[in-house]
Amino acid sequence: MLQKKICMLGGFSVGKTSLVRRFVKSIFSETYLTTVGVKIDKKSVALPDKTVDLILWDLAGEDDIGSFRVSHVRGATGLVLVVDGTRAATLAAALTLRERVEAEFGAMPFVLLFNKSDLADRWVIPDSEINELRQRGWQIYLTSALSGEHVDDAFLQLASMVAK
Amino acid sequence: MTSTVDPVSLPQRTASNDTEIDREALARLLIEIARNVDPDYRARFEAVPTADPRMETLRQLLVSREISELSRVTHLLDEPEQLAAAVGDILPSAAARAPHAQLGEALAPAVERAVQRSIQKSPRTLTDILYPVFLPAIRKSIGEKIDQTFQSLNETLRHIFTWHGLKWRFEAWRTGASFSEVVLKHSLIYRVEHAFLINRNSGLLIAHVTADNATSEDPQLISSMLSAIQDFVKDSFNEKEQSGLDTIRFGDLRLWSEVGPFATLVSVIRGNPPEELHEIVRDVLLRIHEECSQALVEFDGDSSQLAGVEAQLQTCVEQKQEESNEGFPWLVAAVALLFLILAGGWFFLSWQSGQRWQAYVSRWQAYVSRLEAQPGIIVAEQQVRDGQFYVAGLRDPLAADPQSLLSGTQVDPARVHSQWQFYQSLELEFVLKRLTASLAPPDSVRLSIDNDRIVAEGEAPDTWIDRARAAAQQLSAGGPVFDISRVRDVSPEVLEAERWQAYVSRLGTQPGIIVAQQKIRDGQFYIAGLRDPLGADPQSLLSGTQVDPARVHSQWQFYQSLEPEFVLKRLTASLYPPDTVRLSIVNDRIVAEGEAPDTWIDRARAAARQLSAGGPEFDISKVRDVSPEARAAEHWQYYVSRLEAQPGIIVAQQTARGGHFYISGLRDPLAADPQALLSGTEVDPARVHSQWQFYQSLDPKFVVKRLTASLTPPKSVRLSIIQGRIVVVGEAPATWINRAQAAAEQLSADGVVLDVSQLRELDLAELNHLREAIQTTDIFFSSGKVVPGPEQTPVLDRLADQIKEFAQNARKSGVTARFMLTGHSDTTGRETANASISAARAETVRALLNKRGVAPELLLVRGAGTFEPAVPENSQTGSSTNRRVSVTVNLD
To answer: Of A58, A114, B348, B575, which sees the most CB atoms within 10 A?
Structure first.
C-alpha cells in the first residue's frame, strides 16, 4: 500500500470541492470543510508499476491568505493548486499559497489546475500567461469539474511525480 | 652627508612599546634610505646586499605588532585545547546575544539528535532530567483520574442495594477482591474495535487492525481526518505541539489517541474501558517504536516496510471485557444480603452513638419534620434554645402521640417541651377513625378510603344503614364525603334469593349445562334446562350454596354439548386412544398428540370428519404413525399369518432380526407363491429371506390340482371337493375311468378319498360305427411306390371326411380322438427298405389327409414294415393287399 498526502490549495470558490466530489472516493460530508476546515478524500491512481493512494486534504478555500492553516500541509508530498479561470485573482492566491507552503516545508511537486474550463466566455486568464507558466516547467491543466476534462490526467501526473 | 646609523644594527632596535610605532627609529631609517637615493651610494657600496636589512627593519617598524598578534592567534587556532578554552569563554554570552529564532533553528537539529542519541544510549539520563517536569503532570493526571474513578464509583455505590450491587458484593466476598475493584471490573464492559497506527507527520495510515465484526469507513481517510481534527483542535485552542487529542467520546464509542514520537496509535473502543487499557495501548506503541524506529522515521507513505506492526496492533484489538451471563447464586446472595443488613444495622447504631451535638440537633430537626409529616399533627412553632427543644401546635386526639414518636429518634425526652392543643382533623383517616368509633359497624361492613371519600361496603341491617346515613349528613362541610350506597340491606328473604341466584349463575357457568328458565315461587325454587350426561350433576353443585335442596325442583333434558371438554370426553370414550396418544384442548380445538397405529389414526380421522358442524375441531395432525419398525413388524406378522392361512404352505419358523425377516417352511408347488403373496402387505421384499422345501400337500384342493394335471380329465368330467372328499362326476371313456380308479386306489393309501363311483362310461355308439368305418378303410399302393395311385383318391376323400366327423363328434363328447396311420409293405426286397417304405407311405397319407383338412396333430404315423401283414404273403393279391396304410382310432 503506497499512500501520499496531497494538499489541495486554492482561493475561495475555485471548485476544489467540485473536483473532489466527482472524481474521488469520499466518505466525509462537505460540512467538515466549514467546521474543521479540512476534508479528507482519497483518489487511487494506477501507475504502470503500482497503485498510489492519493490522500487528498481539501483545505477550506479562503481569500484571506493570512488565515490559511499551513499546519495542515505538514507531511504532504505534493500539492494540487486550483485556480478559477474566470477570476484572475485566484491565480495570484494559488501562487501565494504555494509560496507559503514552500517557505514552511520546502519545495514539493505540484500540478496547477485552471478550473472551470467549460466557462470559455468568461475566461480571463490569457493563454500567454499560461504558456509563460508552462515555460517554467510547471504541469498545468485546464480542467472542468463539470465535464471532467483533464481531471484524471492531472491526478495521474501528480501521482507519477510523487511516487518517484 | 654620511650615515650615522648602522643599518645592520637597526633591526635590533625594537619598538619602544607595543602600540606605538617607534617614530624616531622610523625617521632615522627614512633618512638613511633617502641618503641611499644618492647616486653615489651604489658606487660606495660595491656589493649591494641581496636582502636589505633595512627593509626588514622597516617591516619590523611598520607591522611588528600585527605579526606578533597574528602568530598568537594562529597559535590559538592551531591548539584545539586553547581554542576550546577561548570559545568556551565567550560561548554563553554569544548565545545570549544571538537572535533567538535563528539560534533555535540552528540548534534544533543538533539538539534533537543529541537527545535522540542520549535516549538511545541511556533513557535513564533523560528520564532523570525530565522527572521534575513529568512528576507534576503525572500527579495532575492521576488526580483527575482518581476523581473520575470516584465519580463512577459513587454512581455505582448509589445502586449498592440494587441487584448488581448485591451480586458484586458477593463476588467481592467470594474472590477476596475489594468491592470497588469488582464494581469497576463490571462497570467496564468494553471492546477495542479498531486500532489505527498513524504517521504523526503526514497523518497517513501506517497500519489498521479491526476486531471481528467491527466495521468502519475507509481507514485511510479516517486516519487522515483524525490527524486533521487533532490539528484543528490544536490550532483552535493554541495547544502546545506535543500534547495530542487524548480522547474523543461519542456516545458509547471512544477514541483513545496515544501519541508517540513518530506515530500515533488511535484505538476505537466501544464501552467503558479500564485505565489499564491505556497501559496496554501505550506498551504496544512503545514496542512498535522500538522495533521499527528506522522504518517509522523514514515512512513516506509506503507501509510495506512496516508490515510487522499489524501483529502488534492485533494485541490492542484483542482487548475486551464482555458481560458475563453466569447464573446468579440466589442462596448465597440471600445470605450475603442478610449479612449486609446486619452489618449495616450495627454500623448505623455505632455511628449514631458517636455523634456530637450537631448531629443531635439534626435529629431534633428530623423529629420535627416527622411530626409535621404526621397526619393530625400541626406544628405551629419549634425552636432550640440553651440545649432545650421547644415545640407547639395542634393535634387530633386520634393522631399519633408526639411523645411516643420521640422514641427511636434518640432525642432526649427530658429536653423536649411540648404544648399541644387538641382539634378535630378533617383528614380522611381521622374522620374514618371517628366514624368507626361512633357507628360501630357490624363485621359484614368494611369502611375504607377511596379517592378522598370514605366508602362503606358490605351488608348491614336497615337500622345500621339509617344511622350511617344520619352520620353522613352530619359530617361537617369541608370534610370528606361518606358514601354508604354500597352497603346492602340484608333480610333473610333477600339472602335466600341471592343464594339461589348464586347457584343459578354457578350452573350457568358450568360447561355442559344450559339453564333455560328458573324462578322462585312461594319459597320454592324451580329450574329447567339442558344438561350433558358427561357434565357435572346440578344436584351435587347445590352443596355449599346454602340453598335448601328440598326446595329445589329441577327438570333437566339430556343433550350432547359441543363444548370442547365434552366432545373430548366423548371422543375418549368412543375412540379408545392408545396410551401413547394424549387428547387435550388447545384454543377450543381438540388436539391429539403422540403415536398411534395407522388404523387408529384412520378411525380418529373418520371421527374428526363426523364431528358435527358448529362443534370444535378435532386436530389429529400431531399424531405420529407408530414407528416404522413397529409397523414393519406388524406388516410382517400380517404376511406370516397370511402365509399360514394359505393352503399348501406350512410355516415352520420365522423371525424378524435387524430389520430383516427370515422365514422357512414347506410349500406345495401348486400352492400360492409366497413371494407373490408379499404384494399388498407393504413388507419390503428385499428384506425377506425365505427358505421353502417343496412337499405334496394332501389338502384335497392340491390333490385335485395334481389329479387335474396328471389325469387330464375330459371336459365331460368334473372334480369337486365335497366334505373333504374328492368326487369325480360325469362321463368319460372307459380308459380314463380305469386310470381314475387306479389313482383312487393310490390315494386311498394316503387317506385321501377319491370317489369315482359316479363316473359313467361315455356313450360312443354312434362314434363306434364311424370308428368301424374308419378302421376298415385301407389305402393301397403299387409295388415300390410310396404315393397311392389316382384310384385311391375317392378313398382318401371319404376317409378324410370320416376322420374329421369322428374328431368333431369325439370333441363334443369331451374326448380327444387320435388316429394312428400305420404304413405296411410286402415282403419283396430287403427288410430295411421295406421298413422305410412303410413309414414313408404312412407319412404320405398323413400329408394327403392334412391336405384334405384333417388337423395334423390328430394324425400319428408309424411304419410297420412287413410285420403286420393283412393277409399271408403267398399270393399276388396278398402282396398287393399288404402294400397299404391302415388307420386305428384311439380315444383319450
So the answer is: A58
